[in-house]
Amino acid sequence: MQIGIFSEVDPLKKVIVHTPGREVSLVNPQLKDELLFDDIIFEEDARREHLNMLRMFSAAMPGDGEIIEILDLAEKAFEKTEAREFFVDHLNRRAPELNINLIRNKVVDFSPREFVRFIVEGGEDPVKGFSMLPVPNLVFTRDLAAVAGERIIISRAARKARLRESVLMEAILKFHPDFESLKENLIDPGDGQTVEGGDVLVVDEKTVMVGMSERTSYSGLIAIAEQLLEGSVESVIAVDIPKQRSSMHLDTIFTFADRDECIVFPPVIINRKDNVLVLRSENGRLFSERRISLKATLEELTGRSMTFINCGGDDLTDQYREQWTDGANVFALAPGVIAGYERNTKTFNALIDHGYRCLNQFEFIEEFEKTGLDPTREEKIAVTFEGHELCRGRGGARCMTLPLLRNKLS
Q1: Could you tell me which CATH number the domain at 12-76+134-406 has?
Q2: How far apart are CA 396 and CA 343, in angstroms?
Q3: How many CA within 13 A on the CB side of residue 229?
Q4: What's the rounded Cα separation, in Å, for the pair 48 and 21?
Q5: Percent of the chain beyond pLDDT 90?
Q6: Domain boundaries, the chain
Q7: Chain mean position to CA 181
Q8: What is the b/e burial string over 45-84, where b = at least 16 CB atoms within 10 angstroms of the residue's CB?
Q9: pLDDT tens digits, residue range 64-104?
């Protein structure tokens, strides 16, 4: 399998997603907090919203582009008995309180489809006293790994509710035949670290940003930075952000819209100072340099003047409201072509003020589904899509995507 992410905004070619299924209907109000959901989700509408989002992606992607469902990858990987054994043993080691070993022999003998369903929907064995909850957060595939250049960072989930997803993705990367040739490309932060893909943003070939957040620890950041800097990456920008649910990952308060334009949550990204480090490696030794602002750091390392566009516009209340509903979590389909939840109207008005043409998802599909999107076009487009149910899970367009390949533009 070919992979390669050398920029957050190069034209999308291959992406892993998960369309919500029965697992979201298994979340009741008593379980939602434990499962990291702010509300319960209506499965049918969430599926419709997600599938319409994928239609928009498909309209923007080249004819040979691929939208890959993570459960299709999982089912293929779990055709191997050793993959099922790997999953059970690693989940038992990382979450011993589940006592999955009580039913090890039973689940290892599941068919690949039964095994995947068990992972996603959970299950119980009253006789042996085993019970496992569903994983409704699987829709947020971004957090399960991150591709930087031609390397894949394996995530280590910070919350018990998402541990199973991390082990699932690791099993796919290690046992799916399409990833066989990429085993030497894996970056493993190691046991005891926490790293999630929502905190990793690829600025360009030489620079990667990593958030130190509620979900990615300092030691996890250092572990992946050391391995990134052994390759073609020259600088890792470490951004310290508030350790709270509203800003659980860096991409909840900062995303790229174009090579030199970013959507930002001002109270943390613009108003906060002295929270940036530049990490480099010299003769195998890691060293850091403190920076005052993220904008100045990006301009220094890229050689480009950067424009920061306010999530929520200029009003502070609007900024907080729209950051809460993922206004800063946009996803680039191509340079200057981005998608985000339609409810964040103040953010889209700010984009219009910065020269973006605003289309809803159906207008975008109608315009580009047959002709295709020319990634070299100069026009900038901001696409709104429905997400009334999807946003209840606390994640936007970037959260719901794990890009594997973007066509590199010169």
Answers
A1: 3.75.10.10
A2: 11
A3: 23
A4: 11
A5: 85
A6: 12-76+134-406
A7: 23
A8: ebbbbbeebbebbbbbbeeebebbebbebbbbbbebeebb
A9: 999 999 999 999 999 999 999 999 999 999 999 989 999 99
